[in-house]
Amino acid sequence: MGLHLNLSLHKLPFMLVGVAFIATSSIVNAGQSELGPRVTIPESSGDKCILPASEMRRRHPDLLKHDRIQTLREGLRANADGSMLDGSLKQCVNCHAIKSDDKYVRIDNNEHFCVSCHKYAAVSIDCFQCHRDIPEGSSNFHALSGTKKHYGNVLPGVYTLTNKDVANIAPEVRSDDN
Amino acid sequence: MTINIDDKNNENQVEESSRRNFIFGSVAAAGLTIAPGVMLYQTAGARSLSDFSLSEKASSNVRWGMLVDTTKQVDWNKCVEACNKEHGLNNETHSRDDQKTQYIRVVNVKNKGTGYSMSLPVMCQHCENAPCVDVCPTGASMKRADGIVLVDRHRCIGCRYCMMACPYKARSFVHEVLTDQTENTPRGKGCVESCNMCVNRIDNGQLPACVEASEGAIIFGDLNDPQSDISQLLAKHGSRQIRADLKLNPGVHYQGI
Question: Which domains does chain B have, with CATH numbers?
C-alpha cells in the first residue's frame, strides 16, 4: 500500500501538468474560429456557379453522382433549355481549370482546383483517372474565355476552415446511390 | 406510317430470320393494333438523327444500328483512325500491341479454296441479347434503351467476364494509367471498354465517327423505323449478321460477307 502511494505521489506533477494542458487547450479551442492549416481557393472563369458556394461545398458529390447516371445510362446530356446539367464534370473543369505559366495545371499538381481542397481534406478522388482533368479545345459547351472572372460568392484567396464549415460538412452528402 | 396486319403478312416473305424478327419487333413498337388498319397510337414516323438532342433521354422506340457494306472497296483503317481520334485511343505507352484498346478491328478473311479475300471492320455488335450484359456481376455492362451497349466505368471492376463472354472479341481492357483522355470518352486503367457507337455524338445528333469516315460504306440509322435508310436497304438487299446462329441479334449488319 505504501509503495502504491509513493508511486502515485511520484506521478503527481506529471498528472497536474497533463490536466493543466487539457484545460488550457480546450479554453483556447473554444475561443478559436479557425481550424488547421489554410486552404487556397483558386480563381475561376465563368460568371457564376450553378449554386452558391456553401451549397456547392456540401452538394457537389451528389450532383455529380446523380447526373452521371442520367448522362451515361439514360442518355440525357443537357437540360431542356439546352444548358448543361448541373453535375457535368466537363463543365466544372471548363470553368475551374487553373492556369500556371499559360498552361493548364494537371491533376497531379496541388494547384488543380479539385486537388487544392481534396488534398486539404484528405479525400482522394478517382474521377480523373478516367475523366479529362483540363478543358479540351473543342467543347460542346462554351469555351473557356481567356479572361479570368471572379464568380458568385467565393472570391479567390486564402481561406481557413471554421467550426461552422466543419458542422456544414453533413453526413448525408456521403450517401452512396451507386 | 401505318403498319397493319396485312403489311406484316407481306413482309413475312423476307427470307431472313433476323429480318423477320426485326419486322415483328417494329410492329410491336409501332403500336397496338386492335383491328387491321386501326391503330390505337403510332410512332412519329421517320426521324432523322439531327432531330435528337442532348436534352432527350434515349428512347426504346429507337434501335440504333449499322449496315456495313464490305463490297465497297474502302480502306477500313480510315474508320479505325477516325475512331481512335474521336475516342483518344492508342495512347498507351507500356502495353503490348495486343493489349492496346481497339474499338474497331479490321479482320482479313481468305477463302483458301478460291483465293478470294476480303476485309471487314468488326466492332461491338450491339447485340439485342448481349452476353456481356448477362454476365456482368456489377451491372456495369449495360444496354441503353436505344440498343447501344456500353460500359459504365463508374461500376466496372475490371473482372473481364464480359471479354470472355463476347463472341466478337469486341472488348478491350486498359492495362495502364492513362492521361490526356478526350472530354467525351473518359477511359482509364482497370476498366473494360468497347465501341460505344459514339453515344456522345449520337446524343448530339451527329453520326458516329467511323460512319463519317467510311465514305458511305457504313450506313447508320434506326432499325425500328421502317422509313429509315438503313431499314429500307435491309428490306431491299438483306444482310448477314456475324455468328447469327448465336441468336444475339446484333445491331451491326453486314453485306457482302
Answer: 5-43 (no CATH), 56-255 (3.30.70.20)
